[in-house]
Amino acid sequence: MGTFCSKCISAKNNVSSQSECTHTHTRTHIPQTLPCSLKEDNLESHSFICLGFDIHFQFLVLSGGVTFFVALYDYEARTTDDLSFKKGDRFQIINNTEGDWWEARSINTGQKGYIPSNYVAPADSIQAEEWYFGKMGRKDAERLLLLPGNQRGTFLARESETTKGAYSLSIRDWDEVKGDNVKHYKIRKLDNGGYYITTRAQFEALKKLVKHYTEHADGLCYRLTTVCPTVKPQTQGLAKDAWEIPRDSLRLEIKLGQGCFGEVWMGTWNGTTKVAIKTLKPGTMSPEAFLQEAQIMKKLRHDKLVPLYAVVSEEPIYIVTEFMGKGSLLDFLKEGDGKYLKLPQLVDMAAQIADGMAFIERMNYIHRDLRAANILVADNLVCKIADFGLARLIEDNEYTARQGAKFPIKWTAPEAALYGRFTIKSDGWSFGILLTELVTKGRVPYPGMVNREVLEQVERGYRMPCPQGCPESLHEMMRHCWKKDPDERPTFEYIQSFLEDYFTATEPLYQPGDNL
Predict the structure, then answer these.
(1) Average pLDDT value for residue range 449-477
(2) Which UniProt keywords apply (predicted)?
(3) How far apart are the C-alpha atoms of 481 and 489, rounded to whole Å?
(4) CATH number of the domain located at residue range(s) 129-227 in this protein
């Protein structure tokens, strides 16, 4: 399956349902999803039988029939059904209709198995180019290019955020005024299919444009020198059909933390894959309700959300997620390298969290427990939101009564704490509190006040003063998040935009101080 007789196609002959073609010549490949009935006579030879089929030949010819894919990264098999492969290996896709794991045959080894679909791209396509980073925002491009070790001229190309069908070229630069910075150039498309940054230099293909600017700056800030290094992405799930997994497939190795409702461990799944495992105390929540919510949670996919990999759905419930090497943001700020960070890094981390929350906002979901303890940190100060949606399921009486030590009163909007009205706007209030955690390096909010006192004072209009060293403009955003009327609080989309442009639009004259 997956081939047709190219001689018949080129002749544009409709083959009757009973007729057979026995031409011997090079096979042409078609996408697996096309509605055709095809049978290979001999996979290793170039002879095969075309069974009768009724499809639009013109569509097949125009589509190019892409079946060959190339690996973008190395991958080590995690199960006996997986294929191990190296970057650059080529595959024929056998079945790509069952989600994030495709059945493929390695052209290099002839072996057949499952591969993660986000680790491959069509051969000879722009997606297979090392310098093409696909759907990536301006700010994420800057974060990557400005990482230590990258030199002037390091670059990447990506989809344009603002112009459909166009691309952006992002280049690391340096000058005496700005120091290290990133310049962005719009790559526009011609009606005839060509590409250009400036009309005096036009190219028939994006590859040729990139090649040209690696040889000459030709008006750009600097010649393209090195492709921006990239981090291997997380797979979507642990493996094919590895969602509800047996408890004995997990090994708990290093205890990372403990809370009111369970523990967090670093561990290994199936003897092959490092993961984080959250274990919940029996009785914390209904297994049935958890499994229902987990089905929603696993579909919330964004690069600023910790991906949910798998679950053990019988008590004690286990939640298996991506392992984030730097642990919780709270611990990172108090005891890790985070205590040495200055305001630009802290604001950037806040912008990443706002980015993830803006996605949750667009998906009409609610976090319900947004605070530094529920943000995880990876290498290069990458932040991801964890535990979204879980708070709703907790059945502990003290917690559901929204009082006592187990409930995070100090992070919770008054309408949610007093009346149980949790919305994306109450998440906005919590984000304002999280901002204070960032600029105070993990200090508990409302220092010196107990929960009951906080509730009473906030109801009377009290708001935390500007933390020491924090710019008044950032405190103003906190106060905006703490408006009494939820509808007056900013959207996360607005907060993200404000924070991403903070040092160009709001605080262009910022100078680092002793603490921030």
Answers:
(1) 96
(2) ATP-binding, Kinase, Lipoprotein, Myristate, Nucleotide-binding, Phosphoprotein, SH2 domain, SH3 domain, Transferase, Tyrosine-protein kinase
(3) 5
(4) 3.30.505.10
